[in-house]
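hey m, so remember when u said the tokens were messed up on ur end? i reran from scratch. heres the input so u can diff it against urs
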Amino acid sequence: DLTFNPHTWNNNRFSCPTPVVEADEKEVVASLAAGNQLLYSLNSLEITGTYPNLFFEFNVQVKANDDLTFLEKATFRFKYYKTTFGDIPSVLLTSTSDFSSTVYQSNARHISDSTYEIRINALTNASNRTQILRNSAKSIIHVKIPFFKCGNEHKIRLDSFPNAPDYSTFTLTANALSNSSSPYSSVALTALRIGLTCTPEITRIYSLTTNSAIVPAGIKEKVKIEGKNFLNGGKVFILSADDGGNTYLSLDKYDINNWSDTSIIFTLPSRIDSSVVSGLGYLTQPPGSGALYVQNIETQQSNGLLSDLKIPYAAPKCTGIVL
């Protein structure tokens, strides 16, 4: 059963979500336990690519309870959400500098519902096996998985399984014969769950005409927002000039000229006339200077950094008069 606590969001729209790393201490045996222990952990998580071709990437690290062992074979399993990654996602493995492909081979196999198993084996009678250290974790493999939906469910969890120590073995020297390897006495898992959300990030805002972030409203000026994780739609929120910047209003969809995962182009209107303010219904208010923010289709919001737009004035909105 794959169950996670929901990610807790800060209600402040300018909060900056950080990578989620959750550890279940019940799964972690004492690092000073008798015998040789191997500890697996996950780190260096990131989202790469551009929507809709996004990838979830992470490293698997290992360390031991002493400095006496050299890795012969490592085996671990991880669980994933099918709603995010699909039924049987493709898994791309890349060797790391600590575990060179000239010494180690790796493979991934789907073994059951929502579970993958990855094995890293030293070549037969390999020389220069990697020493596993106590105080310094080493990245054993880099994993890359495509995913199809952003949100709290795109998490990966290391998973324990019966007789796990038998599938993780070591030798006592870097150049020992393979038949002299022994299983680790125990295998521990830490940083069991990792996850990232597709939080929009703004890197620049500017006028397409002047290349400046100072943009008058109501003169049909087009503004470009650059960044990432905008996905393929959402809303742009701008401060209201009527109340000193205490209210955010969303641009009318007709003001949005183009929307992609890495950029948004919109026309800055003299009044924002299609935004709902809680309890007040629809209001028309002029856009004001200050930090704007982007909310993508997964309702995740940018953090307000690098997003200031200065609006020196708003030209009046003209209407036709019939005599």
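this time it looks ok to me. Residues 21 and 194 are 5 Å apart (CA to CA). if urs says something different then somethings off w ur setup not the seq
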